[in-house]
Amino acid sequence: MALLEVENIHSYYGNIHALKGVSLSVDKGEIVTLIGGNGAGKSTTLRTITGIMKPHEGHVRLEGNDLAPFKPHEIVYKGVAMVPEGRRIFARLSVAENLEMGAYTLTNKSKLNQNMERVYKLFPRLKERRSQVAGTLSGGEQQMLATGRALMADPTVLLMDEPSMGLAPVLVELIFDTIQQINKEGTTILLVEQNALMALSIAHRGYVLQTGEIVISDTAENLKQNVTVQKAYLGME
Amino acid sequence: MLRTWRQRITLTDIVVWAIGVAIGAVIIIGTIATLRSGKYSANTWLDLTVKGLALGGVYALIAMGYTLVYGILRMINFAHSEVFMSGPFTAVFLANALSRSGFMDRQPLIGMLLVLALSIAVSMTIAVLLERIAYRPLRHAPRLVPLITAIGASFFLQYVFRGLYGSGFQAYAIPKVLQGSITIGGLRIFNTQIAVILGALGMMFALYAIVQWTKTGKAMRAVSEDKEAAALMGIDVDRIISLTFALGGISAGAAGILYALLFPVVNFIMGFIPGLKAFTAAVLGGIGNVPGAFLGAMILGLIESIGPNLFLDGLGVPTPSQLKDAIAFTILVFILIFRPTGILGERMAQSKA
User: What 3-state DSSP class applies to A158?
Assistant: First the structure.
């Protein structure tokens, strides 16, 4: 049984049919990437998994349990954390307070401190700036904070929406190295990316989403060799 | 360059500026004239200052309700003045019963705490129900809709309480320990004023501590910035909004009892003027900002108490203190025109997408 299973979901924005029967699955310990162009429905898929959008049709299952009856904040308690598109850190809270909010679901204070140490180890920059107001961080640091914040909840599945967006190549490298490290430490990851080359270089498997439909599903290695993928998403002729 | 600059200045701007300058001139001339006449002694000014601080403390507690709710929902809860009225207007019956039975004189501290607790409980309940019934279903409606509902809810509550307890004024029995005054160096301070100032400062500090340092308070600030991101952290946004209304209700209920110590009569429209004043204070300090609400309320309390005598007496205005409300609301109009973000306010509109 897959850890996270999306089965035939249909979603609408008003009259626009944004997802037309998307199905995908993520197994425990994997990094799975969802690639596709602008408006393909990648973010919509993630928003549906988190419960912020409810699908018109279809199911989202975590460890076999249907998530449909749960509100977004309840789904977090079930072990799904998200690094949202555009980071969405709490700009007027300090770095440490942002991380505390990430650990909102934890009731154990020592577990919280332990997770905070882990995040500070992954991103030493955040430790240096822990009492600074988050709105004053640079774009790269904000991405680190958004990633660290999601890790604070000890998620079983981490959803990441465009972590490379707007970052300098060096920082993209750093973020992707960290994603791999987080995965090695046992967190399952579903990664949505426009930077398909980077995403495929760290993922085990991938799905290609086009105008609301999954058009290709394969291992990352095979996707990199796939002519359609090379043409459309890797910029090769 | 000059042309475009000229075009941007409209007749309205000129009139508004002219009125502003005129009011400024009146204030300056009036102040100089009053001080030169030497009609009031230093003690009178100190006396008015103490009065202003007490009044400011009450406004600060009411303003907390406006500012917390605005911070989290970007909505002015115009029914907050009724949240403020409902507590003391209910607790007055308990207070008077305790006085009549003599309990209040035997155990003034327990008696006062009981009255305070009842007032707080009623105001908090009203605030939470108000959000649950009147505002939550309209969370995603255009901003004007909950505003109109708030005004409707305000009238509804006024007349429900009128129906429950009658339209007359109820005298509020002040416990014997708080009657009387102390004199420090010729300055006479009423015990009630001391109680109000200390009570308000204590409550304000407690509220600030909750918002700043507790997990729930941090969650409130997170929700006020980005509800969706907060939900993705596992924060139950609806619950936090309820708690915010509860906190606003608690401070309004406490403010109601303190207000009744200063002006010991209560009735069903007692909330209207202090509610508007506290709203003015919240806007003056920068709505949405907790320390701002405190600062704005203290400034408003002081201006309202000292202002009429200081600004108007020297101009030969008879009984200037009757114009205190005019002064308070002139301030509201002018902040809204010249500095709508208030003293400590930040530009909210830009940070929210």
Answer: strand
- Give the number of domains in chain B: 1
- Domains of chain A, CATH where assigned: 1-79+157-164+188-237 (3.40.50.300)
Tell whether B222 is within 8 A of chain A (Cβ): yes
Which of A72, A97, A149 is nearest residue B231 as measured by Cβ atoms?
A: A72
Nearest to B234 among A73, A90, A92 (CB): A73
Residue B87 lies in a domain: yes
- Per cent of chain A over pLDDT 70 is 99
- Verify whether the Cβ–Cβ distance A93 to B218 is below 8 Å: yes
Q: What is the pLDDT of residue B2?
A: 55
pLDDT tens digits for range B271-316 = 999 999 999 899 888 888 888 899 999 999 999 988 888 888 777 7
Q: Does B106 touch chain A (CB under 8 A)?
A: no
Residues of B with Cβ-Cβ distance to A71 under 8 angstroms: 231, 236
Residue pLDDT, tens place only, A182-202: 999 999 999 999 888 889 999
Nearest CA in chain A to B236: A73
B28 within domain boundaries: no
- Is B337 within a domain? yes
Full residue range of the structural domain in which residue B157 is found = 39-351
Mean pLDDT of chain A: 91
Contacts of B304 (CB under 8 A, 6+ apart): B52, B55, B277, B324, B325, B327, B328
Query: What pLDDT score was predicted for residue B7?
Result: 66
Question: Taking 70 as the threshold, does the pLDDT of residue B320 lie above it?
Answer: yes
> Which residues from chain B sit within 8 angstroms of residue A91, using beta carbons?
225, 351
Cβ A73–B218 below 8 Å, yes or no? no
Of the candidates B183, B325, B199, B321, the one whose C-alpha atom is nearest the C-alpha of residue B262 is B199
Contact check, Cβ <8 Å, B222/A88: no
Whether residue B1 is contained in a domain is answered as: no
What pLDDT digit, counting tens, does each position of B37-63 carry? 877 888 888 888 999 999 999 999 999
CB-based contact B276:B81 (threshold 8 Å): yes
Q: Predicted confidence band at B189 (pLDDT cuts at 50, 70, 90)?
A: confident
CATH code (residue B234): 1.10.3470
Report the residue from B218, B228, B232 with minimal CB separation from A76.
B232
Is B212 near chain A, with CB under 8 Å?
no
Sort out which chain A residues have CB atoms less than 8 A from B229's CB and list them: 84, 88-90
Dihedral (CA of B145, B151, B152, B157) sign = positive
CB contact under 8 A, A104 and B215: yes
Nearest CA in chain B to A83: B232
